[in-house]
Amino acid sequence: TMEKRDEDLKKAQMLDARARNISHNVRCTECGSQSIEDSQADVAILLRQLIRDEIGAGKTDKEIYIKLEDEFGETVLYAPKFDMQTAALWLTPVLIAGGTAAGLVYSKHRQRTNVHIMALDLIRGVSLTPKERVTILDVLIPPPPPPQGVASRFRRWLNR
């Protein structure tokens, strides 16, 4: 009947959407740079059919990913799991961000604790007044470098 057909159609659409979602997360073993959803290679077509068969058999997404990884290796998945082999891949962005943050903090710290002012304080035996400190810092700290963006480079090129 009509309701049964609509229900079957909705179920088929949901299964198809689930299969496409899984296929987008699986790398084509022949192409390497495409998901099996985007690839028309023979192996991609077979893998898409395998995924649909597994969904039809009642497997969960996780079970399907595990089966694919067991049969084709962990490189078949776009999101590798965290282990000793992939630790560098996962930790590199964190290490770069941490190093950059540490460098910025150190740079700001260096600007605030100027060695020349500390030396003058020691020689005089009395701390500089805030006005003296500002005057000396204006003399000793070089001006900031010009901006290095594309617009500033273009302006400099125009002023030649």
Describe this structure in words.
This protein is mostly helical and 160 residues long. The protein has 7 helices and no strands. It has helices spanning 2-24, 42-56, 61-72, 87-112, 115-124, 130-140, 150-158. The model has no long low-confidence stretch (mean pLDDT 81).
Number of strands: 0
Helix content: 55-70%
Compute the separation of the termini in Å. 80 Å
Structural class: mainly alpha
Number of helices: 7
Mean pLDDT: 81
Element order: H for helix, E for strand: HHHHHHH
Query: What is the percentage of strand-forming residues?
Result: under 5%
Whole-angstrom Rg: 31 Å
Major beta sheet, specifics? none
- Pick out the low-confidence regions: none
Shape: elongated
InterPro entries: CcmH/CycL/Ccl2/NrfF_N, CcmH/CycL/NrfF/Ccl2_sf
Protein name: Cytochrome c-type biogenesis protein
Pfam family, one: CcmH
Subcellular location: Mitochondrion inner membrane
Quick structural gist:
The protein is mainly α. The chain has helices at 2-24, 42-56, 61-72, 87-112, 115-124, 130-140, 150-158.
List keywords for this structure.
160 residues, mainly alpha
Helix-strand blueprint:
Elements lengths: L1 H23 L17 H15 L4 H12 L14 H26 L2 H10 L5 H11 L9 H9 L2
Helix pairs in contact: 1-2
